[in-house]
Amino acid sequence: MIDHAHDLELVQTATDRLLTAVGALDDAAVTQSSRLPGWTRGHVLAHLARNADALVNVLEGRPMYVSGEAREADIEAGAPRPLDEQLADLRQSAERFRQAAAVPQDWSRTVELRNGVTDQAARVPFRRWVEVELHHVDLGIGYELEDLPAEFVEREIDFLTRRFAGHRDVPGTTVAAGDGRSWTTGGGAQGGPLQVEGPAADLLGWLAGRRDGSALRVKGGALPALPPL
């Protein structure tokens, strides 16, 4: 059962943490490279603000983005802004999302995201939580995968292993955190079964494309190359 109200509280906590961390930066820091190839921190911040507005669109029954080109153009246009404008946009867009999610609605309905992906409306707050937490890490300002809330790490590993389940490019794989927790994924490609073991933060980093998996132990073959998210 998806508890959207609980997830909205988690989004708010993560957003407050992000705003506090970004507020300690300066204009020069915003122009520096993030951990995402080709993106400055300004790109990441602009994307986070536009993603909040895009999820408002989803909740209100509009297309998430006008087009892929418009999405990219908005991020490029927002990236060079000074820190105070970035912060104001982050704060205001987050509030627009909070208000849209506070409106009584059918949370069991199916909504459409990017590229034809559909999901239950109740999972939209979780998806926003993912954006805020992982992109906070992507900023490279001292918030690491190891700092992510334990609930987030477990739920995001669960979400990503489900996403790759049956994928034609991923052999059957068991992902094990070493503390008794394990997940299964892949199964659509030849090879395996594989077992990938390591700390939960490193498992999440590999599944989410934030780490290369070199800290993980693999049994039964080579570490699978995961498709892009």
UniProtKB/TrEMBL annotation:
Residues 12-139 form the Mycothiol-dependent maleylpyruvate isomerase metal-binding domain. InterPro entries: DinB/YfiT-like, Maleyloyr_isom, MDMPI_C-term_domain, MDMPI_metal-binding, SCP2_sterol-bd_dom_sf. Keywords: Isomerase. SUPFAM superfamilies: DinB/YfiT-like putative metalloenzymes, SCP-like. It holds the Pfam family MDMPI_C. The keyword Isomerase applies. Residues 147-227 form the MDMPI C-terminal domain. GO terms for molecular function: isomerase activity. This is Maleylpyruvate isomerase family mycothiol-dependent enzyme. It comes from Streptomyces thermospinosisporus.
